[in-house]
Structure formats: C-alpha cells, structure tokens
Design a protein that fits this description.
With about 300 residues, the chain is α/β, with parallel strands linked by helices. The protein is built from twelve helices and eight strands. The strands form two sheets. Strands 2, 3, 4, 5, 6 and 7 form a six-stranded mixed β-sheet that branches. Strands 1-8 form a two-stranded antiparallel ribbon. The chain is globular and about 55 Å long.
Length: about 300
C-alpha cells in the first residue's frame, strides 16, 4: 500500500476538491481511487460537508473564537444577501438575531476566511426550489427589490402553488425568515391555498438544504474561465450550473436535514412528508467576490 493511500486526513483544499468531485456525480469509491485515500476518508469529508457546510477539518482547541460555526454561516449569508454593505451590517444583524457583539474586524476575518472580499456593486437575485427527486427552474428577479407582493405574484402563485399541487397533501414549503416571506399578505395567501410552511428557529440558515446548493453553484461558477464579465454572463453561468448539480447531491442534502443541529427532533417528525425548499441567492457583479482571482462574481 502506498504512503498516499495510508493517509487518514486531507488538507482543506484537497477536501474541497473531494466535495467538488462528489457534486459532479462521481461515486465515493471513484473519488477515493482518484485521490489515493480510503473510501472512509471520502465518506467522512462528505458527511462533514452535509452536517456543517464545510469540507475543512474542525479547528483544534486553542484560543476561543468570538463566533460559533452557526454564527459564521449567518454572517456569510447576510453578506451575500445585501448589496452595497460593509462589515457593520452583518455585525448588526448578528447582534439582533443572537445577542453577542463582535468587532467589525471579526466580521471581515470570517468573510475573508470563505473567500469573500468587497468589490463594488450590482447584483443578480435568483430564486430556486428543490425537493427529493426534483427541482424548479431558476427565476431571476429583475426591476427592483423583491417585495411581499412580488414574492406572492411572481414566485408563490405561478411557481409554488402548481408545484405543491403536483406533489399533493404531503407538500411542505421551506423558505427563510426574510421580511417579504413573512408579510401578512403572504401568510394569508398561503393559508388560502392550503400550503403548509415549516417554521424556522432564529438564526438557522444552515438548516435549509438549499443554502448548500447555492454554495455548490457558487463554487462551480467561480471555476469558470474566463469568469463572467457582465450581469448577463453571470445569470447564464448560474442557470447552467444549477441544472448541472446532480439530483443525487440534492437528495443527500435533504436527507441530511434530521442531522442538523438542535432541531433534529422536529425534522425527524416530518420524515414521511415531501419537503420542498425554496430559497434566494444574490450574486453580485462586481459585488462580494468568491476567490481571489475572480473579478466579477460572488
């Protein structure tokens, strides 16, 4: 057995390449053979990614971090969802959601740690939906911000209602707690249509499996060479990569929901139902960038 095959750990960059191969449709056995490690190493990396959203190894004991992994993910999602912002906004959002006060330098460190840096303005706002053995096409929001009325008229009525009818009585809608989603007119509409919505605890974005799909799409788009140079190219790249995410990956993310954090009991009680996750993702051009060599991409 070679020295390489005896390795029990991979570097963080190697672990992310493993995730990329699995997202691309390769089996764990194929990836293990290509990387030169045992399949148990590949399985451990994949399970870690499904549970935490990160492929990297958990940090060793040392100086206590100012934020928890959950709070780190909350900061990153806040940064991705707001245009023309600085480190103060995610700092304020986190304090409102969970109570702790952290420095803007800590916010910048967390964003830089996942490859996000500040660069200009402009954005693409897209919506997508996933469920076991299915997904909805991207819908691109144009012509201004998404209001509660637009959410009802452009997303729920033409997209979600027919999708729910096709699935049947077991349909459950998962969306996040942003303002337009929770407006009274949206609540009234869902009640009138008989659509059941899953309730979310505060500050729990990592529990929605579609957030991990957005991450996968973002990593794939970040690998485009040359990178998108216009908003139209950015839209097209995201549409292409959304369609290329293997359905097996989406199914695995949804199946992993009972393992996520403190809400596992409530999730497990819904095992027999078909949960459809609906979410939004903002990609900025130039905006917040992913990876140092990217010029116009989140």
């Amino acid at each position: 057995m070679s020295t390489m095959s005896q390795r029990s750990h991979l570097t963080d960059s190697e672990a992310w390449r493993v995730v990329g191969r699995l997202e691309g449709g390769q089996t764990q056995a194929e990836v293990a053979q290509a990387i030169g490690v045992s399949q148990s190493v590949i399985s451990r990396i994949w399970n870690r990614f499904l549970e935490t959203g990160s492929a990297g190894r958990r940090p060793r004991q040392g100086r206590r971090r100012a934020t928890t992994p959950n709070e780190d993910r909350y900061l990153v999602l806040t940064a991705r969802r707001h245009q023309n912002m600085n480190a103060t906004l995610p700092q304020q959002h986190l304090r409102s959601a969970t109570g702790p006060t952290i420095s803007t330098q800590t916010v910048q460190n967390r964003l830089h740690g996942v490859g996000l840096v500040r660069f200009g303005s402009g954005r693409v706002l897209v919506y997508g939906g996933i469920s076991i053995d299915g997904r909805k096409d991207f819908y691109i929001i144009r012509g201004g911000p998404l209001t509660a009325r637009r959410y009802r008229d452009e997303i729920l009525r033409p997209i979600v209602v027919p999708y729910a009818a096709a699935i049947g009585d077991d349909f459950i809608l998962m969306d996040d707690n942003c303002g337009p989603h929770r407006a009274n007119l949206v609540e009234d509409f869902l009640f009138e249509e008989g659509i059941v919505r899953m309730e979310w605890p505060a500050c729990s974005p990592d529990m929605n499996p579609i957030e991990h799909v957005w991450d996968a799409v973002g990593r794939r788009v970040a690998g485009h060479q040359p990178p998108p140079q216009t908003l139209q190219e950015l839209e097209r790249a995201h549409l292409e990569e959304w369609d290329r995410i293997p359905q097996l990956v989406i199914n695995s993310l949804i199946d992993s929901m009972p393992q996520r954090n403190f809400w596992s009991e409530a999730m497990t009680e819904r095992d027999g139902e078909d949960i459809a996750s609906l979410g939004r993702s903002i990609s900025r051009y130039p905006g917040y960038l992913r990876d140092g060599d990217m010029k116009e991409l989140v």
